[in-house]
Amino acid sequence: MSTPTVPLGAILTHHARRSPGRIALIFEHRTLSYAELDARANQRARLLMDHGVGQGDFVTVALPNGVEFYETTFALWKLGAIPNIIAAKLARPEMEAIVEIVRPKLCVGAIDIAGLRTLPGETGELQHYSIEPLPEIVSPHWKAMTSGGSTGRPKVIVDAMPGRWNPDEGFLLQRPGDVILNPGPLYHNAPFHCINMGMFVGASIVEMGKFDALRALQLIKAHNVNWVTMVPTMMHRIWQLGPDVLSRFDLPSLRMMLHMAAPCAPWLKQAWIDWLGGERVWEYYGTTEGIGSTMISGADWLAHRGSVGCVREGYQMKILDDEGRELPVGEIGEIYFRPHGGAGSTYRYLGSEAKRFGDWETPGDLGSVDAEGYLYLADRRNDLIISGGANIYPAEVEAAIEAHPAVRGSAVIGLPDEEWGARVHAIVQLVEGAELGQGELIGFVAERLARFKLPRSVEFTAEPMRDEAGKVRRAALRAARV
Fold first, then answer.
1. DSSP of 142-157, one letter per residue?
2. Less crowded by CB within 10 Å, the N or C end of the chain?
3. In degrees, to the nearest 5, what angle opens at C-alpha 82 toward C-alphas 79 and 87?
4. Separation of alpha carbons 360 and 324, rounded Å
5. pLDDT value at position 1?
């Protein structure tokens, strides 16, 4: 008999009763058991209630990774409210745009917008509130994440799932009681979703706060971490520690390293498989909207090199052209998904409209499938460079550039060109202290790509090209240079 679902507001209590003393969260020098985190979330829920928060209310949360973040989200679920997560240091215009879309009952964090009720994350008021359980209330939507989108205009993705979960049902091969490392910013969907799902099944979360390559390995080793999700940028920075450092970390406790959120260069994926083994390196491709996803093990990837896997159970997938016609095997087109419940069954937008052909919806990515149904990503449709009539996918060029040991990160964009229509321009961040000229870099890339894909210009910068979640906003980079 399967375990019944538990309201998210009561799930900390559930695990505290089932496993007294079970560690919920390790952050810096603090360790909180499930019972301790539950008690603090009860206090914070009563504080939020005094500020008018109730069932079905949106509350915008702008807090950095830390104990207060976890307390706040679980407190909101205890009240049946909906956490709307944004970056703590979000630029004011974007923050104002999100607040205008969401119209939250309250904001938690360092937000200063006229007419908006706010509450700081750190507060001494909690001690005045009771730690006793609250009545069980279910939130109508367990999260409302934000996205910049390809246009730069913020949109909010309200998840259709109500605030309930089966505490024995692990997400993406997580297991009840795992030790899970979080190296990513919780304002991004992938870490927020995966880390909270881990807690829903009683995992112990080792929270990094901010990613550091060597420290990530040290924490995995010190806490016997079983499961971690990363983005390729993190994988790249760990790999750049070099063989002398990596040889000290065989990480026997680590059952699964799951990467997602951005394309992974095949050479980097191969390097990790060679290091950890194909049974421990996994990849997930999906969307915050939950319209569809794929997954693949490292062992399966070796047989289908470059693929992100087959569509997961509960979804269907097609590759369509601009007129909505299904394309044959091997031909690149736009990826479309359909969830089991049909269009609109997994989410709704605030501030945007979905692009659909009937019941089929696209995340805006281009790709192809092979005869066995394995999906191969090309790039974002909006980032595609058409130069002299040829399609050039920036992610492919970036992967070749970042294979150079002196390169820390890169972004490839198309700039206007009178003769070709567009030319490939590479913006490159070097490893600190490294020296690399344009000619040497292009020569290196020429050994890996066809001539028409090579950058025609290279711009070196000290600024990171990707954010903490591995995302690069090529549209903004392109606009700044045009």
1. S-EEEE-TTTS--EEE
2. N
3. 125
4. 9
5. 45
Residue 140: CB atoms within 10 A of its CB come to 15
DSSP state of 382: G
pLDDT score recorded for residue 420:
78
Q: Which long-range contacts (CB under 8 A, 24 or more apart) does 278-283 make?
A: 278/302, 280/254, 280/255, 280/256, 281/257, 282/173, 282/256, 282/257, 282/258, 283/258, 283/259, 283/308, 283/309
Q: Tens of pLDDT along 117-167?
A: 999 888 888 889 999 999 999 999 999 999 765 445 678 999 999 999 999
> Residue 332 to residues 266, 287, 306, 318: CA-CA distances in angstroms?
18, 19, 14, 11
CB 470 within 8 A of CB 233: yes
Please determine, for residue 112, whether its predicted confidence score (pLDDT) is greater than 90: no
- Beta-carbon count within 10 A of 218 CB: 13
Instruction: Provide the 10 A C-beta neighbour count for residue 91.
Output: 9
pLDDT of residue 356: 86
Q: Are 223 and 206 in contact (CB under 8 A)?
A: yes
Which residues does 225 contact at the CB level (< 8 Å), separation at least 6?
179, 180, 181, 206, 219, 251, 253, 254
Is 282 within 8 Å of 269 (Cβ atoms)? no
Give the helix/strand (H/E) hosting 45.
helix 34-50
> In this structure, what token pair is assigned to residue 82?
């909906």
Listed residue (291, 309, 292) closest to 373, CA to CA:
309
First to last CA, the chain: 61
* Beta strands at 144-147 and 82-85: parallel, antiparallel or unpaired: parallel
In degrees, rounded to 5, the angle at the alpha carbon of residue 261 between the alpha carbons of residues 257 and 262 is 100
Task: Give the pLDDT score at 151.
Answer: 45
Cα separation, 450 vs 448, whole angstroms: 7
Q: Are 308 and 377 in contact (CB under 8 A)?
A: yes
Residue 285 has pLDDT above 70, yes or no: yes
Q: List CB contacts of 278: < 8 A, sequence separation 6 or more.
A: 297, 298, 299, 300, 301, 302
CA-CA distance, 100 to 106, in Å (whole number)? 12
Task: Tell me how far apart the alpha carbons of residues 88 and 366 are, in angstroms, rounded to a whole number.
Answer: 32
All domains in the chain, ordered by first residue: 263-382 (2.30.38.10), 384-481 (3.30.300.30)
pLDDT score of 148: 61
- pLDDT one-digit tens code per residue, 422-443: 899 999 999 999 999 999 999 9
- pTM (2 d.p.): 0.85
Q: What is the pLDDT of residues 232-255, one digit of tens each?
A: 889 989 999 999 999 999 899 999
